[in-house]
């Protein structure tokens, strides 16, 4: 889609400061991470739409040549003379920011407001996957540090950005916080217990936050693609293996094997099993494979971002939706199987108990239409 003509930059900045952006009008996005193949493609789409993008990037990633190559190419394209990229350079603001540092997050948000007058959408998209069983992550101080690193990356860094952005969003009385999570927010994965724990922590934080910010017309959406989408577009860290969990003792396919097999398709990222070393890799997939992998997620982010009535959660893709439905079905069945144990602790009269067991009672409604409950 062709970028819209906006006239002079100062006039546009004044207009943005005066009124909230609608869903289809130019919006200002603040991205907490910008080097993943998914986010690079998202940025290109946003710029083509005419949006403004503040793209934060980690000082640790910028020194990794392969990881930063696509972003550098994007910057080069923005400076080019192609007519379909006109104005890209003025609407993209790269900002070096370590999300683990609260002050740097505050400075990044302030720069976004100074550059474009407002922040319409904060997209928390920083991720990495620590792979290892609970025992494998408990063998040494180095592996225990991986646990802390996982929470710093997925939870604390994103919380820092959210806290920094809230005063601006509240003052605007409009805004949209989006969390690019995964269905790991619903379903645990053997071998990724700490990844799952950090994801659940962030989602639990946001579930509570959504109620707090609703009076200020600030929306919050958690977008959950399949776990492989986040894992295969960000850094993967393998803890040393414990023999008890190798293929001989546990013949079922493990997430370590599945991710390792993908990395081994490229000689630059190939991994060998190790019982002593921590190994980290940035996956390098063919561009065509990346396009297919991330297309649905990018579509979801652009369709939902800045929407007047966005969903609280959006699961991307059929497989992810089916997996979550199956998990929720199991939870429901277990609730029904043990309803007697649940009701045993409540002080209901016998009639209420009978109706509850039959699933006929509505929340807070007593027999005969009365809303009171006997104690």
Automatic annotation (TrEMBL):
Residues 359-375 have a biased composition (Polar residues). It comes from the Eukaryota. Keywords: Oxidoreductase. InterPro entries: NAD(P)-bd_dom_sf, SDR_fam, SDR_oxidoreductase. Coiled coil: none annotated. GO terms for molecular function: oxidoreductase activity. Residues 356-375 are annotated as: Disordered. Belongs to the short-chain dehydrogenases/reductases (SDR) family. PANTHER family: SHORT CHAIN DEHYDROGENASE (PTHR43976), SHORT-CHAIN DEHYDROGENASE_REDUCTASE FAMILY PROTEIN (PTHR43976:SF16). This is Short chain dehydrogenase/reductase family protein. It comes from Pseudomassariella vexata.
């Amino acid at each position: 889609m062709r970028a819209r003509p906006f006239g002079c930059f100062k006039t546009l900045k004044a207009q943005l400061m005066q009124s909230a952006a609608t869903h289809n009008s130019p919006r200002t996005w603040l991205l907490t991470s910008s080097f993943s193949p998914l986010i690079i493609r998202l940025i290109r789409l946003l710029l083509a739409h005419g949006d403004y993008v503040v793209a934060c990037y980690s000082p640790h990633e910028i020194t990794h040549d392969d990881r930063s190559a696509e972003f550098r190419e994007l910057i080069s394209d923005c400076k080019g003379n192609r007519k379909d990229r006109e104005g890209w350079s003025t609407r993209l603001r790269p900002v070096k920011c370590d999300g683990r540092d609260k002050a740097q997050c505050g400075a990044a948000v302030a720069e976004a407001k100074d550059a474009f007058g407002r922040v319409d959408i904060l997209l928390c998209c920083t991720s990495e996957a620590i792979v290892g069983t609970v025992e494998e992550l408990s063998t040494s101080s180095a592996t225990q540090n991986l646990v802390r690193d996982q929470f710093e990356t997925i939870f604390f860094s994103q919380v820092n950005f959210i806290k920094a952005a809230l005063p601006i969003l509240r003052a605007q009385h409009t805004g949209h916080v989006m969390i690019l999570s995964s269905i790991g927010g619903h379903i645990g994965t053997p071998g990724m217990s700490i990844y799952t724990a950090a994801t659940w922590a962030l989602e639990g934080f946001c579930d509570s936050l959504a109620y707090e910010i609703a009076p200020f017309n600030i929306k919050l959406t958690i977008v959950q693609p399949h776990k492989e989408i986040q894992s295969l577009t960000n850094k993967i860290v393998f803890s040393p293996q414990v023999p008890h969990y190798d293929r001989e003792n546990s013949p079922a396919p493990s997430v370590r094997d599945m991710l390792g097999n993908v990395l081994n398709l490229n000689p630059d990222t190939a991994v060998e099993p190790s019982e002593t070393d921590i190994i980290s890799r940035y996956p390098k997939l063919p561009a065509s494979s990346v396009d297919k992998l991330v297309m649905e997620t990018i579509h979801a982010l652009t369709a939902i971002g800045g929407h007047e009535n966005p969903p609280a959660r959006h699961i991307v893709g059929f497989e992810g939706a089916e997996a979550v439905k199956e998990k929720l079905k199991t939870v429901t069945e277990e609730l029904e199987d043990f309803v007697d144990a649940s009701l045993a602790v409540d002080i209901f009269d016998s009639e209420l108990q009978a109706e509850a067991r039959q699933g006929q009672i509505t929340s807070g409604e007593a027999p005969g239409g009365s809303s009171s409950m006997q104690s």
